[in-house]
Amino acid sequence: MKLKIKRFLNNKSYFDEYEVDFRDDETILELLDRIRDKDRSLTYRSFCRSSICGTCTIKANNKTILACKSKVKDFIENDELVIEPVDKAKVIKDLVVDNSFLEEKIKKVNGWFVDEIDVTKENLQTPEELKKYDKQTDCILCGACFYECDALEYDKNFAGPFAFTKVYRFVFDSRDKMDKQQRIEIAKENLLYNCINCQKCAIVCPKGISSMMDIKMLQMKDKNPPFSDSFNFF
Ligand code: SF4
Ligand code: SF4
Ligand code: FES
Prior knowledge:
- This protein is an alpha+beta fold.
- The protein contains ten helices and seven strands.
- It has two domains: about 100 residues, Roll (Ubiquitin-like (UB roll)); about 130 residues, Alpha-helical ferredoxin (Fumarate Reductase Iron-sulfur Protein, Chain B, domain 2), CATH 1.10.1060.
- Helix content is about 30%, strand content about 15%.
- The N and C termini lie far apart (about 60 Å).
- The C terminus is likely disordered.
- Bound molecules: iron/sulfur cluster (SF4) (2 copies) and FE2/S2 (inorganic) cluster (FES).
């Protein structure tokens, strides 16, 4: 198989090419590790190696993936595998991008727990209450949904799929004490209604989260939707 890896150093980008064999069960991260054993200058991020830390997001043959979760054999096309950094983020070196936007976007939508919990007693929640937002807590902030999101092509101020999933997580958590409509209003300031339903966030998410559905649910819960006047027309 021909392996091409996009490199970026000193403001120059170029491809390194290799002829490599691969094991049937080999992950793309393991393949990168093998290349790096020969060329210590190759730079990429990884940590947990088990789809938990969200650091190893890259592109393989134009698909955004977690390198530690994806098998080489599943991504080869015409006996070739092209590895590149993700889109929509500034490349720092080789496959490493500046992902500081993850924190910035979460801050913009108030993506944290607001509580008035009495620490002297248990803050109980029923299994049914937990079920409402349990899936959304699986988000590992890998950014894959953001890198693929079409709404960001039109307006970079769109908070991004993962950020709205974070809003959903707190709007549907019965323990969170921030006013739910206030959370939705903040989401609207960050262009909640700009989602164009392309579904790419749901397709790409390694944790099976559909941010598109989370956005729809937030829109349905909105007591003051921006298009209410036009709805009245009908
Ligand atoms: S469905 Fe909406 S949030 Fe998801 S990738 Fe498409 S535009 Fe972005
Ligand atoms: S929603 Fe999925 S794709 Fe998006 S950051 Fe979270 S885990 Fe990654
Ligand atoms: S190395 Fe942690 S998600 Fe891939």
